[in-house]
Structure prediction request, 810 residues.
Amino acid sequence: MPTENKYIRWFKDLRNTDVALVGGKNASLGEMYAELSAQGVRIPNGFAIIAQAYHDSLEAAGAWTKLHAVLDGLDKTDIETLGKVAEKCREIVYQATANDDLKKQVVAAYRDLEEESGEGVPVAVRSSATAEDLPTASFAGQHDSYLNVRGGDAVFDACRRCFASIFTDRAISYRVDSGFDHFKVLLSVGVMRMIRSDKASSGVIFTLDTESGFKDVVFITGAYGLGENVVQGQVDPDEWYVHKPTYRQGFRSVLRRSRGEKQLQMIYSKAGGSLTTTNIETSRADRVRYCLNDADVLELAGYAIKIEEHYTAKAGHLVPMDIEWAKDGQDGELFIVQARPETVASRKSHDMLESYKLKATSNILVTGRAVGEKIATGAVRVINDMKDLYAFRPGEVLVAESTRPDWEPVMKTAGAIVTDHGGRTCHAAIVARELGVPAVVGSGNATTALETGQMVTVSCADGEAGHVYEGVLDYSITQTPIGKIAHPKTHICLNLGNPEMAFSVASLPNEGVGLARLEFIISEGIRAHPMALANPTEVKDPQARVEIRKLTAGYNKPSDFFVEKLSEGVGTICAAFWPKPVIVRMSDFKTNEYAALLGGAQYEPKEENPMIGFRGASRYAHPNYAAGFALECAAMRRVRDEMGLKNLFLMIPFVRRVGEAKLVIETMAKYGLKRGEDGLQIYVMCEIPNNVIQIDKFAELFDGFSIGSNDLTQLTLGVDRDSETVAFDFDERDEGMLEMLRLAVEGAHRNKRHVGICGEAPASYPEIAAYLAKIGIDSISVNPGSMIKTMQVVYDEEQKLLAKTKHAAE
Prediction:
């Protein structure tokens, strides 16, 4: 490159320490271009106009006095006045930057870029504030960007408009709220070669989970075309997770994925003789496939990990990153076009456990993706145009197709936000996280299902799915200081079935997962009977065949869909608790539950009492389910072998006889899940009296026992807990049941086997938890909501036992 002009700095000459010179965004681009290009991270070349150019231009034009005259005394809560003041300020700056000397320098730099990348090279022109992308503040979306700009004159005009955008309504409001002085924040402009993502795809990456703050994953979102649609929430993007610890160990597998609608695609177009951008509808064929293949996703994950590691090494502490990427449709290469420290989820405090819980439910009006974990109530305000925005009142629930950065002064007063479109990295989601308000995005129908003035409850406390309920519902907020939680010697683990909850509940103090159920993943994520997916041509129900074809669109065969979805659900749970053990129970649907799945009715017998019928281990080697069990095993093998999540242990339910146990163990080995190989442990549910009676023989075949107190109580007392007539006799505290628990614990320890409990008894009855601690059980596994209470009960009992032992010794 030629010698620098006074106001121009090329990316190669910038570092992250140059924030005061070129703003956070440009400093970061320079840092990555100079330091990470050699590591294979692709950054498009470009240059920055330093912030001093903005300052000197306004100084020379006498613009500071004019700006003070307009801005001083502004009440930003007056939305209409704010808009008029901001427009005047932008005009002042635009006119002040009409500087011939500055124009010559910008045009000369653009010509140098043309020499490198070709005549008329399209560029992105982006603002970069000197207070931007700081560890404690994000100016993301406050200022304007211009895409696909060509020619020296057009580039300079776009730069002037960028300078002027320092006084957008939203930027003014943001600075007031964040305590920044309007006249001390300066603006630099970056000019970067455009990547032809209009012919491919683009999106956003976070090096943590944006909802829970879980830091061991890379979260990638993307859609076709230019990236503005993803950032602004105009589309529902594809999403992927990659697990960082196993990636670093050399495993290359997507942890989890979700296919978005990707309704629109922003491309280049000609309007009035000049190139600009426009949105077109995405074809149906493109909507049903992912905008990136797995190789692309893993390459981007590698870039993200390198970027995070680089910034972490510089800072001396972990620095999660917010990154924008683009794929060039001409050469297929992937590029990073922006990176900044993430400033919301990474600052989430884990010193205090705060949980929201609905005390009642009502009619669900809208469902979408939950942002945050809170609940709010209020009156709906549907925003169709600016007059609706002016009418908005603080505390109302803002409902719109999507939100825009210039709405932020209003959004900051909202009780909750609900949108038709957008994923978890869209504008509405980012603002909601920063404000700490619940949001439901990508609902598809909020603007038509909800009416202005309607009272609703917005809940994001149910996992990944967010709901808008009819009416004002009561809810509770529980706060527990982490430092005050007692930690007993007995391991307290979690019961978990919903992978969407895994990253959030992993922050609870725990020793792993004592029971992860497959049933939720199969019923909610897969929805079809395993045998129907293993043998799709045999499905007799025509409607089921149609639904299965829709579900499995884009897969080579339906069984691949089953293996991928089940392995990603289980893998998500294992990744959340890595490297702690996660004990996954193989499927334990009853025949009536299996029959309710798509295509399931033809594979299931009708039983009078499914509770003690064709379930658990008896299915696994039986011809009526052998092909389904083979798919389950393939999924579990993928979690361990391809994802590298060796903390996955397996558990077999409802094993009636020792001979049956041997057959299942042999069958699993045939499918590549051999006990003891590569650290694989196989547990058995201890839930049939015969498991206790013959515990010595079962101990020869399994690595541990998990007491299922629900079924063990039913079968010990001979009580159907679902029967309204005799359910009163179902009581885990019965003396016979206590003796069963004691025999199970003693028998397991006699054989040097781990023994835990995963039934509901310890959570329901504190005296059971205390009794289990007294007899020396190794672990107690409970639902997340019962964990803290159970820990305290067990700790107190252990302290009593310790005091008794001390007293006896004295």
Summary: The domain at 352-480 is CATH 3.50.30.10 (Glucose Oxidase; domain 1).
